[in-house]
Amino acid sequence: MSFLIRVLLSDTPGSLALLAEALGLVEANIQSVDVVERFPNGTVMDDFVISIPKHVMADTLITAAEQVEGVEVDSIRPFSGTVDRRGQIEMLAAVAAGKRDVPKAMQAMVNVIPRTMTSGWAMVIDTTPPVRRVAASQAAPEDDGTVPQNVVLETARLLIPEQEDWIPESWSLLDSSLAIAPLGKTPLALIIGRPGGPDFLASEVQHLGDLGAIVGAIIS
């Protein structure tokens, strides 16, 4: 079984090697490592996709990682597939090729976004009243007919269900972290959800915003 484990560690030579060695001792196989954000205090947040044998418990990964000095496990959750940041280039090419058929282009985008943003799902909505869903990835919440009202969107940001009445309840199930970004100057918006967390970091929200600006420029 595979897990996505987010770890805070020292951004110094050798730190990653020590962590990899500790995880290897409990039969963990590191499939990918992705730097999520670097902080001014000399630490870095990394995402690891790790597979373990059936007889190894997920808690073992946390124990092994935190035995390394300076390592703190931020979160861990089951994860299927692999992190594919390079897949965004292919996705942008697909959007560009199909820009005359916007719904089809948006479907191509949301099919890829979960792998490139380590989210559980992605969807695109048209914020022109009445708000409607344009495309959604396979694991996105079902469209229950809810029509969001008064969507406020000027820039990429986190969505806070407790403070924003327009967010459908189904989006925030399983304590999902949510983020949204406008697609350039179009009325479309890209929303991603990460059930069970961890929360999207500022760097991830900025990345989402940059991606939205690029896609918006392509389809405008």
Question: What can be said about this structure in brief?
Answer:
InterPro entries: ACT_dom (IPR002912). The chain is α+β, with helices and mostly antiparallel strands and 220 residues long.
Number of helical segments with 4 or more residues: 5
CATH class value of the largest domain: Alpha Beta
The residue-averaged pLDDT reads 91
The percent of residues in helical segments reads 25-40%
Q: What is the N-to-C succession of helices and strands?
A: EHEEHEHHEEEEEH
CATH architecture of the largest domain: 2-Layer Sandwich
Instruction: Give the distance, in angstroms, between the N- and C-terminal Cα atoms.
Output: 42 Å
Query: pLDDT below 50 for ≥5 consecutive residues: which ranges?
Result: none
State the fourth-level CATH superfamily of the largest domain. Answer: GAF domain
Query: Oligomeric status of the shown chains?
Result: single chain
**How many domains is the backbone divided into?**
2
What is the strand content? 25-35%
Strand order of the largest sheet: 6-5-9-8-7
Q: Which helices and strands appear, and what pairs or packs with what?
A:
Layout: E1 2-10, H1 15-24, E2 29-38, E3 43-51, H2 58-66, E4 72-78, H3 87-97, H4 102-117, E5 121-126, E6 132-136, E7 157-159, E8 177-182, E9 188-194, H5 202-219
Antiparallel strand pairs: 1-3, 1-4, 2-3, 5-6, 5-9, 7-8, 8-9
Helix pairs in contact: 3-4
